[in-house]
Specification:
The chain contains one helix and eleven strands; from the N terminus they run ββββββαβββββ. By secondary structure, the protein is mainly β. The chain has a single domain, classed as Deoxyuridine 5'-Triphosphate Nucleotidohydrolase, Chain A. The radius of gyration is 19 Å and the shape is globular.
Length: 151
Amino acid sequence: MTMASLDVLVSTTSPDVPLPRYSHPGDAGADITTRVDVEIAPGERVTVPTGLSIALPDGFAAFVHPRSGLAAKRGLTIVNAPGTVDAGYRGEIQVTLLNTDAREAVSLKAGDRIAQLVIQRVERADFVQVDRLPGSHRGEGGFGSTGVTDA
């Protein structure tokens, strides 16, 4: 079975900014890079420009996810993961990175992969106010209601 393909229009701030790219067949996320050098001190967050702007068809959104290798090896994550790029947004995609390491700074060079862009179909909801919601198996059980206990 082959994956469906969707044309996404991309504009870059300069010719040397790489387009989003899938590293392996079947990958859900396309790697995106920083367009500037940046150093992120321990515990610091920095908004990093990618040099990419995209035009998504209506009914789609792009979600910016952390790269698992950067998270595991260097403690780098995305503050608002996943970040949402709406179909109507045409500005430069920027990624707010957070260095969770308590001791080591993270240095990135222009062109380094910093996140993954996942394109998904999204539904638009009509929100209907009611006096009472229908019941469910879970009910109002929230945080910890499925067996998480304090140690």
